[in-house]
Amino acid sequence: MELSRRDALAALSSAGIVVGGGAAVLARDAISFEEDTDGPSAVSVIETLDAVARIVYPSALDGVGEFVESYSATRIDERPAYAAGARESVASLDDYTRVHADAGRFVALPRAKQEIQLQRMGVESAEPAPDGTTPERIRYYVVNELLFALYSSPTGGRLVGIENPQGHPGGTDSYQRGPPE
Which residues fall within 8 angstroms of residue 63, CB to CB, at 6 or more apart? Predict the structure, then answer.
């Protein structure tokens, strides 16, 4: 299955971000964090989100990089509180990686080692909390945000049989037909 920028726009809409006529940022070159703050750049945050998405998203999906970039760039640009939380979470993940895997950044590790790092941190079983422990924040700002984006998109919804999730308009045809085969 192929994720697209259109899927990212649908996911952004589900997140309450109005993107009229496709006027969303949709490019990581157009976003930035304030100059006077410490931490990873917006580009680094999106690279880390892409790396984590490739771990938590089903392997049957193509176009993950473009989808994550489109969704995350706009989300970061439109929601400063989310941007700050994501940036702090990525910085914590990179710090953990430096200490426990002797790598400069999480994205520098091979995918298998990235997955191991997330498991060792306890992100897999952490309760998502924006003000919680490091694994809880990573779960909230990184993992759960990526999963929300995927499953609120049309392609992600079809993947798990919720093409037209509750509360999403789609007409009577969408709920009268059987599940995808």
Answer: 2, 3, 4
* Structural domain harbouring 86: 5-33+41-158
Q: How far apart are CA 15 and CA 72, in angstroms?
A: 11
Give the three-state DSSP class for 44.
helix
Residue 117, in any domain of the structure: yes
Over residues 74-98, mean pLDDT: 92
Whether the Cβ atoms of residue 164 and residue 171 lie closer than 8 Å to each other:
no
**C-alpha of 84 from chain center:** 14
Instruction: Tell me the C-alpha distance between 101 and 105, whole Å.
Output: 9
Report the predicted TM-score, pTM, of the whole model to 2 decimal places.
0.79
Given pLDDT bands bounded at 50, 70 and 90, which one contains residue 28?
very low
| Start-end of H helices in 2-79 | 5-14, 42-56, 64-78
Query: How far apart are the C-alpha atoms of 66 and 64, rounded to whole Å?
Result: 6
